Amino acid sequence: MTPDDERLLRRAIELAAAGRASGNPPFGSLLAADDGTILAEEHNTTITDRDISLHPELKLAVWAARELTPEAAAATTMYTSCQPCGMCTGAIERSGLGRVVYALSGAQLDDLKSVTTAAKVTMTGPALHDEAKVPVEGYY
C-alpha cells in the first residue's frame, strides 16, 4: 500500500459513510487513474433507488466499460470500502479494470453483521451441456 493508495481508500470509506447517511448500505468506491486522479465516485444506492444492482463497484465498472478505452480502463484502480461481491467482481473483470484495493474483506464484513442478509438459493446444474454449448462455441 502506497500513501496514495491509503488516501484514495480513505476517500472510499468516506463515500461509504455518505451512502449510509443517505439511507443506503454503507459501501463506497472510486475509480482512479494511474496518477491518482479520481475519475468517478459512487456509493451504494440500492435502497433509495430501489434497485438491488446499484452497488458502487458495479456502477463504476459499467461506467468504465462505457466511458474508457480498454487501455485506459486497464490503467485504473478501483478503491472500495469493502471487498466486492460476486456480482461486482464479475463486472469488474468484464470491464477490464486493472486493479482493486479494498478496506474490509467479505469475512470481516460478515463479522460486523448481526443478521445474515443473503438468502440461500438452491442451484442445479450443469445440465444439457451438448445443447448449451452450441450458441457459445466459437464466440470466445
UniProtKB/TrEMBL annotation:
Residues of the CMP/dCMP-type deaminase domain: 3-116
CDD domains reported for this sequence: nucleoside_deaminase
PANTHER family assigned to the protein according to its UniProt record, in alphabetical order: CYTOSINE DEAMINASE FAMILY MEMBER (PTHR11079), TRNA(ADENINE(34)) DEAMINASE, CHLOROPLASTIC (PTHR11079:SF179)
UniProt protein name: Nucleoside deaminase
Gene source species: Nonomuraea typhae
